[in-house]
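Summary for the steering committee. One of the milestones for this cycle was to obtain a three-dimensional model of the protein with CU-O-CU linkage bound, which we needed before selecting residues for the alanine scan. The sequence and ligand used are listed below.
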Amino acid sequence: MGFLLEFMGSLLVLLPLLLWARAVRRLPDARNWQRTARAARRRYYYVLAVLALKLLPAALLLGHGLAFGIRPLRTLVLLGVPLALAARDTLPLLNRAIRAAGPTPELRLAAAAPRVVLPARLAAVAGGLLAALNLVVQETITLWLSGGVFALVALVVVVDVTQRQRRLAGQARTVRWSPWARLAAPLVLVVAAAGCGAVGSTMSAFPDRLSMNAHGHHGATSGPAVNVTDLVGGPYSGPVRRFTLVADEARLPGRAEEAWTFGGTVPGTPLRVRQGETVELKLVNRLERTPTTIHWHGVDVPNAMDGVAGVTQDAVQPGGEFTYRFRADKPGTYWYHSHQVANEQVTRGLFGSLVIDPTTGPAAEVDETLMVHHLNAGVDLRRTEPGRRVRLRVVNANSGTERLTFTGAPFRLAAVDGQDLHEPAEVSERSINLGGGGRADLEFTMPPHPVRLGGPATRTALVLSPDGVSTVDQPKSAPELDLTTYGKPRPTPFGPDSAYTKHFTVDLDQGVGFHAGGLGFLWTVDGRVFPDAPMLMVRQGDLVRMTFRNKGINDHPMHLHGHHVLALSRDGTPFTGSPLWLDTVLVRPGQTWEVAFQADNPGIWMDHCHDLLHATNGMTLHLGYEGVRTPFTVGSATGNKPE
Ligand code: C2O
Ligand code: CU
């Protein structure tokens, strides 16, 4: 199922295919007639065996309700047909050749017959084509071109095989290759291959200028058009919390490279507000040459405040400012980060935590936040008095999945992605997988000895201890906490049996192809990369069901802006514990997730993998509300590049 396995599989088939074709072709002139025939027969069976092994995983996936994908199907058709033809004509001839004392002229001629030679040679051509196709992921673009190349090569092979038989039969050639024709044939192939590349690169190049308005938008819009800049929310009454956050370069202790910071530190200034307060935050950009923005990850802000360069605003230029304004509606653990060249900017430090306390005040006596990030590596020791109720909030600001374990005391997983779980049970020695961008809140009573939250992959860990110095080791491993059954159910506004007005299925995979004007490793949505990935269109009020299927070999934490989605099922297993509201859905290889959300926050919203390297290499799509337009554009000519 994975691309690498696919490609290796293609090569494993291609090699014996070529050797088989070679042996069959040589047979009529072979000096050691019997040995050549035996080798050909052996290689044929080898091809059959490898092909069966290659198709086995796909066949097994069928048992899990996964569709038999286009790749195995194509392999089956392109290789299955010549192999079947060979079983009918080539194999009997090889058997005759092995039994015969020596090659009679009649047998030689039979061995050169097209119906004996062609299956092997066409299978070899098909094998080469399959390997090439698995290398290039935008199959829809190159399929007809590669089909043309295949037809061309097949034609050459057919002519060659018939010519050879005529020669062996002592007949005159019907076709004579002029030196020019000999030169032209490979030239045509080179031009065709270059054509595939050129078409691929223009179709998927990162645009100079692209507006999310027209992008993949089908059908007429109804109602009056709304501009994203009008979707500012408010007016808000009640208390206002004002902040100024300066983006600037800074040198972190012990690091040669300059970091980029919000407020002079990495992680940036921790923001803490109370539910119901209006946040008014002025971003001042003092970075020397780097435009930036702030996105409020997990806070369902009005669209104009979402901070996505080129979609909801222009990136704030050096020396410029932008004021974000939104109401802190739902208490929980969130974070903020740049959404301009996010992969680089978040990696270099432009992120921080945002905690919204309930109206009643802090959720526990001791409230600590841990941001997991490579610039924040190391063991953080903090002093905590025994007997205190502790809320420990952890944010995964890295791109990769973190397997986090809490050790030292029984705990409850109080919240996921900022949303409280209902009646979470107390557990101990359990691990939690947190995808890039995801959050988890743990609650426990501080014991008279140290406790620790961290993971084997992460080099960030937090140790709380009564004296602030003693520590405890990371446990080797702990079973994963199963969120499909954790906590107690409670009514939700919609669920598995609701009548959905829209259903989207999103396939996640990877491959090699053309993107942003170059050839590279890509992460794909429905076999395509941004900006060719489809735009998901909804109407305000739609009840939307989404299916994510991970057909690749990497974790994909899919993050939808502006909405929380309710987890319905994972691999067909329904969520029967506490309702799980997510903004970052960690879809692991082979997994299928069903989630649902209400389209109640009009705008143009990103939906992307929060492994930011994946997002920047294609795994980006958008959720658009009908009638919403943006005056902003993305692309190299605009200075806006959200990923
Ligand atoms: Cu946390 Cu689109 O990002
Ligand atoms: Cu990903």
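Key point for the committee: The pocket of CU-O-CU linkage (ligand 1) is lined by residues 295, 297, 337, 339, 437, 559, 561, 606, 608, 610 (CB under 6 Å).
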